[in-house]
Amino acid sequence: MNYLSISPRLAPVADGSPRKRPRSAAAACLLTASALLLTGCGSGSSTGSATSASSGSSGSAADAQPDAGAYPVTIASKFGSATLKKQPTRVVALGWSDQDAALALGVRPVAVVKTEDSFEHGVGPWDQAALGSSRPEVLDTTDGYPVEKIAALHPDLILAVQSGLTSADYAKLSKIAPTVGYTKDRVAYGTPWQEQTRLIGKALGRGKEAEQAVTKVTDELKQDASTYPNLKGKTFIYAYPMPSTGSIVLYDDERTNLLKSVGMTLDPVVSKAKKLNTFAHRISSERTDELTSDALLVWYNTAKDQRQLESDATFSALPAVKNKAYAGMDRTEAQATSAPSVLSIPWVMKRLLPSLNAGLK
Q1: What's domain 226-359's superfamily in CATH?
Q2: pLDDT at residue 65, rounded to an integer
Q3: 226-359 has the same fold as 54-205
Q4: Most buried of the four, 79, 113, 327, 341, by CB within 10 Å?
């Protein structure tokens, strides 16, 4: 999939539009050209088998008892309310990382949306252990949510919390099954991972487990801040180069909030750059020398883009690059941070923080 159709948070922002609509993971990548700003999403036909996903059930959704008094429950979201009278057993996860939260709570969706071509069975490496032998249907949403395919899966719950859901999408999906989207005070693809986990936990009748999962990751982030003290108070920039437009996108969203949670500070150059949308800014590549933050994280859509930027003399002379407080991320790492979840956060922080901390001495 191409990020200009990809995930909103991953995709770059070419046109400045913020998140993409669920036009696929691509939509997730949404940003049209902007989509690349987020990260890359995969494209192509869907793969996987709904029936092989725990023989048609959402895995342990039906294997464990819900919290006492969990049902019936009504969950309000931006476009309407979903009422569940009992514990769902066939869950379709349409949000960019909604499957992460479900899997963390022991529920294996019968279907997920395609985000990266490289993701085995449609989920990131941080999900594989929880996915086990389940094989969910992988839905290509490049041209919108495949309503007929979703209906054919006979879901009793549709999750679209971290998504680009629209009122039109909701109207169609809610006729198939109770649909839980993002809340009215959030924008597409803009739900914090804590809220995402709690909403999904409520829908799955596992509110207590969801709270425990949030607490666990929060405590781990606090421990990270203690384990890597050089991060405290250091400025950082999270960027994405767009060679085709001669610009560099600078983020200010959930991915940067993640780094703030371990004590880092977003460099002021970000807010001073041209605003593209609700979560990204942009500067010309000619102003690369202004990226003088203590640490620098850059995600690349292709290896070619990475070689091109890293071979640039101005880029090589940046303080963070010279001091080795620079992290060049591939699309998988970008996905893990762009739509952070209770499963992706521990995975990606272990990959990023040790080297950043060492470079910030």
Answers
A1: Nitrogenase molybdenum iron protein domain (3.40.50.1980)
A2: 79
A3: yes
A4: 113
Q: pLDDT tens-digit profile of 279-290?
A: 999 999 999 999
Q: In whole angstroms, what is the distance from residue 6 CA to residue 39 CA? A: 7
Mode of pairing for the β-strands spanning 274-275 and 280-284: antiparallel
Q: Could you give the CA distance from residue 37 to residue 21 in angstroms, rounded to a whole number? A: 14
> Quick one: which of 315, 298, 282 has its CA closest to 356?
298
- List the domain boundaries for the chain: 6-36, 54-205, 226-359
φ, ψ dihedrals at 159, nearest 5°: -100, 125
Q: Confirm if 188 and 30 have CB atoms less than 8 A apart.
A: yes
Query: pLDDT digits over 194-219, tens only?
Result: 999 999 999 999 999 999 999 999 99
Quote the pTM value: 0.86
3-state secondary structure of 74: strand
How many of the other CB atoms lie within 10 Å of CB of 322?
A: 11
Superfamily of domain 54-205: Nitrogenase molybdenum iron protein domain (3.40.50.1980)
**The two three-digit tokens of residue 249, written as one number:** 């996108």
Structure-block tokens of residue 141: 């949403």
